[in-house]
Amino acid sequence: MGGFIGFIIIGALAGFIAGKLMKGEGFGFWVNLVVGIVGGIFGGFVLRLFGVSSNGGLIWSLLTSVGGAALLLWILSLLKKKK
């Protein structure tokens, strides 16, 4: 599933999964979806820092996005606690 629509669907699914994995983060459905989309970009960036290719098909893209989204949710939770 390529293209812009595929990117949105994978990101939205990743945000939902990451929101469920990061219990108690309480950012809500829409924020988790946006974080999933941004997390896909962030996850790919982090993988490239470690020399790992983020091009590996649908499942690899989903795993990369979930990892990036979970990392972003964790960072957001740290920032939320400081306020």
Distance between the termini: 40 Å
Question: What series of H and E elements makes up the topology?
Answer: HHH
Shape: globular
Total strands: 0
Hey, roughly how much beta strand do the residues contain?
Answer: under 5%
Broad structural category: mainly alpha
Q: Biggest sheet, in brief?
A: none
Rg: 12 Å
Q: Percent range for helical residues?
A: over 70%
Low-confidence stretches: none
What is the count of DSSP helices, taking H or I runs of 4+ residues?
A: 3
Task: Let me know the average pLDDT.
Answer: 80
Characteristic key phrases:
single chain; 83 residues; mainly alpha; 3 helices; globular
Structure at a glance:
The protein is an all-alpha fold. It is built from 3 helices and no strands.
Can you walk me through this structure?
The chain is an all-alpha fold and 83 residues long. It has a domain at 29-83. The chain contains three helices and no strands. The termini are far apart. The model has no long low-confidence stretch (mean pLDDT 80).
What's the topology here?
Layout: H1 3-21, H2 29-49, H3 58-82
